[in-house]
Design goal:
By secondary structure, this protein is of the alpha/beta class. It folds into two domains: 148 residues, VC0802-like, CATH 3.30.2130.30; 201 residues, Rossmann fold (3-Layer(aba) Sandwich), CATH 3.40.50.620. It contains 13 helices and 15 strands. The strands form three sheets. It has a five-stranded antiparallel β-sheet, covered by helices on one side. Strand 6, helix 4 and strand 7 form a beta-alpha-beta unit. Helix 5 packs parallel to helix 6. The longest helix has 20 residues. It is elongated. The protein starts with a strand and ends with a helix. The protein binds adenosine-5'-triphosphate (ATP) and magnesium ion. Adenosine-5'-triphosphate binds next to helix 5 and strand 12.
């Protein structure tokens, strides 16, 4: 069984049980779940990898259960360690049961004594080869040797729904993950130029969604055809302005998805000034076509920080595969850097904005 701890959920006062129930809901596909006071027990085998990606979990251990009795705990520790070889160890006790007759330090000493008596080893408190974690709960004692760090944050579903503009690049999958980590469930939208792009792109996007589904559970993906809109823009818009106009269309279509999905905001992978389309002025031009909130959790991050997260969650290897992003289709080498809303409103007046609705309807 796994003993699972959460962190922030515990701070939520009266809402606490709502958050706990959400987390229970999010892990119950892995096995039988029991909610206890301050932690959760999951009866399952071999699900460490899955748990380590589920938001809301601070840390967990694959544990053995002993009675609320140090003698039994000692026996269980002997079982757990038999066959293991280690030159030194330490016991790390947390005492959730405040009325337990021994202090944490006393538990460390008593159970440490059991290990010393039965194995050829020494106590080493810092950098020990082996740590035996002991959690004294109200009715039982849990024991484990691997404490696995989770992603923390809040359980998916506790913060509402958002729509993420998911490209095939590095950034937007990480942005989605960060929103999930704050409790959002994420619906994905990808814009694709079918005449220009191969099915490799489609595969790439579904692979990314598959990885992100390990974090939030089943996910929805809208593939929106972008060819006609791009034709319209290429015919009528100066190449230096095209990128911003593409992105304004993407936001408009994403708004329609958000309305349909009853989502409260949009998410992008923008990071301030990372590329020309992400200067403050240009983001203003793009975001202003949407009335709701646009969340860009990478806005203050450096590329390396984003890459580190992508590696950790497993999207990096997929994102770096080459693909033709439809945004880079026929745009100028030196695009506008300091766009002005007014200029794009004028450009819009010459465009068929109804194509946004049409593309939305044609999405698959
Ligand atoms: P990413 O690595 O996420 O592609 P980027 O640094 O390449 O980001 P841009 O290509 O300017 O930056 O895109 C900025 C954001 O616009 C992306 O993070 C994504 O949210 C959205 N976006 C761009 N292209 C698409 C697309 N084809 N489909 C869906 N969203 C897109
Ligand atoms: Mg991109």
């Amino acid at each position: 069984m796994y003993i699972i701890h959460y962190d922030e959920i515990g701070l939520k006062g009266k809402n606490r049980s709502k958050f706990e129930d959400q987390l229970v809901d999010n892990i119950k596909h892995l096995g039988r779940v029991k909610k206890e006071f301050g932690y959760i027990v999951l009866y399952a085998e071999d699900v460490s990898e899955e748990l380590s990606l589920i938001p809301g979990i601070a840390y967990f251990g694959d544990a053995l259960k002993a009675e609320l009795d140090l003698e039994d705990a000692g026996l269980k520790i002997k079982d757990l360690l038999s066959g293991k070889s280690f030159a030194n160890f330490r016991i790390d006790t947390s005492r959730h049961n405040k009325s337990f007759s021994k202090t944490s330090q006393q538990v460390n000493e008593i159970l440490g004594g059991v290990v010393l008596d039965n194995f050829d080893c020494k106590v080493k408190l810092k950098n020990s080869e082996l740590t035996v974690y002991v959690e004294v709960c109200n009715k039982v004692i849990y024991i484990y040797t691997e404490k696995v760090k989770g992603v923390s944050g809040l359980p998916v579903g506790s913060a509402g729904k958002v729509v993420c503009l998911l490209s095939g690049g590095l950034d937007s999958p990480v942005a989605s993950f960060l929103m999930m980590k704050r409790g959002c469930s994420v619906v994905f939208v990808h814009f694709v130029n079918k005449t220009q792009q191969s099915c490799a792109v489609k595969n790439k996007i579904s692979e990314l969604v598959k990885v992100l589904s390990k974090v939030q559970g089943e996910s929805k993906l809208y593939m929106v055809p972008f060819d006609e809109i791009q034709q319209e823009i290429i015919t009528k818009v100066d190449s230096k302005d095209r990128m911003i106009v593409y992105r304004r269309f993407m936001v408009r279509i994403s708004e329609l998805v958000a309305l349909k999905e009853k989502a409260l905001g949009l998410v992008t992978g923008d990071s301030l000034s990372q590329v020309a389309s992400q200067t403050l002025e240009n983001l203003d031009c793009v975001y202003s076509v949407y009335d709701g909130v646009i969340l860009s959790p990478l806005i203050g991050m450096n590329k390396q920080e984003i890459v580190n997260i992508a590696r950790k969650i497993g999207t990096y290897e997929i994102s770096i595969l080459p693909y033709g992003d439809c945004c880079s289709f026929l745009i100028a080498k030196h695009p506008v850097i300091k766009g002005r809303r007014r200029d794009f409103e004028i450009i819009d007046s010459g465009l068929n904005l109804g194509l946004a609705e049409k593309a939305f309807v044609e999405a698959t």
